[in-house]
Amino acid sequence: MQIVDLRQVRSRSLENLFQEEILRWREELYWDYRPSIDLIRRFVDSRALGGCFATENGNAAGYGFYVLEDHKGLIGGLFVSARPGQAAVTQQLLSEIFSALRATPRLQRIEAQLMPFGTEIDPAFLTPDFRLHTRQFMLLPLREAQLTRHPLSPGLQIEPWSDRSFESAARLIQLAYADHVDAEINDQYRSESGGMKFLRNIVLLPGCGTFLPDASFVVRPAGENRLAGMILTSTVADRVGHTTQVCVMPGYQGHHIGRQLMERSIDVLRQHNYDSLSLTVTASNRRAVELYERLGFRTIKTFAAGVWKA
Predict the structure, then answer these.
(1) CATH number belonging to domain 139-309
(2) Do β-strands 229-237 and 217-221 pair in parallel, antiparallel, or remain unpaired?
């Protein structure tokens, strides 16, 4: 096996891996990964993407990449071809990426959420330095959705998403995830500025599919600018939606607001002839998992989110 810096290769060397990765995302997660691969191609060819590329006997075996943001490194993707020795290639790539990130000056944190295809990635994180959180990828066939139509509590109103909501939504994220496991996994949830970065990536950039404003909503107390809850939805494949964010302000939780938001989004997707809706959730967030299961979601894949702190 040979491992080289990703900045030493051109995207054509990874093309077989890209095509296999697109197929796995589509078959296993109902997700059109082609737009993401197009971005990766451009970054690879501009030599702007840190990471590693593995070959075996002259054939492309796998690749992984990372990005640096302020004080942290984010392992943004890793894919290894399905063949004998896949686990060894996976762990070698991750080891090289970890080493490169840990050698970065002033780096305080590494985050990774990597979807496994054919081999478990988790053992590579099992060191004293990494904390692991199990995540679930859940899917709902929309024709099977179990809707209850709870009325919204008096004094609250639900509205379509508007870009005017950016600032109040960023504040909502910070407050909703205070002392929450997801803020341990993604530190953007810990501040308004981080929440704003997250929102821009979801709403303005292709960070998670194509944003679908028609199926995205906010809840606010009548006559106020602050938000009590929100849901953001994207399109990730033809007739497949993905809930990229749903959160409710502390003090308003337990009043069916999260379910109301999910049901409103599901109604819109049905009206647009979507077939299914997916989302990811941290397994230890049992209240959320149970809500999604009551709506009809089922887990189709589990994966680990790993966090390293200096």
Answers:
(1) 3.40.630.30
(2) antiparallel
